Amino acid sequence: MSMDKDEKSDKKDDMLREILKRIEQLENQNKSNKNPNKNKHNSNMKCAYCGKLGHWESKCFKRLDDEEKLEQNRMTTNTKSQMKYINSNVKVPGNEH
Ligand SMILES: [Zn+2]
């Protein structure tokens, strides 16, 4: 019976050690994130457009994506208004009589 108890407490210790290890790992991660020298590439770059770290606004995929969509939108609306303009100014010969 005492063997069982020991085994259980061993497992508890293992769990505790595991948790402590994870906490230590997380703390180390935080430290390395805060260290500008270690993570210079990422930590100094913050996108002003989407607010994400690791790239500049000029390299922002979201911005480029949005701009592409905007460009497409503008082009389609331009084409539509041009078509309207053309349609309203086109005189169908049959109607003039
Ligand atoms: Zn971005």
Explain this structure.
The chain has 97 residues and is an all-alpha fold. The chain folds into two domains: 1-44; 57-89. The chain is 68% helix and 0% strand. It has three helices and no strands. The radius of gyration is 32 Å and the shape is rod-shaped. The termini are far apart. Bound molecules: zinc ion. Zinc ion is lined by residues 47, 49-50, 52, 55, 60, 62.
Key structural traits:
2 domains, binds zinc ion, mainly alpha, 97 residues, 3 helices, single chain
User: What general form does the structure show?
Assistant: rod-shaped
Largest sheet: none
Mean pLDDT score, rounded? 80
Instruction: Name the hetero compounds present.
Output: zinc ion
Q: Number of domains in the coordinates? A: 2
Distance between the termini: 111 Å
How much of the polypeptide forms β-strand, as a percent range? under 5%
- For the secondary structure, the number of strands is 0
Summarize the structure.
This is CCHC-type domain-containing protein. The protein has 97 residues and is an all-alpha fold.
SSE inventory with pairings:
Elements: H1 2-34, H2 40-43, H3 61-89
The structure holds zinc ion.
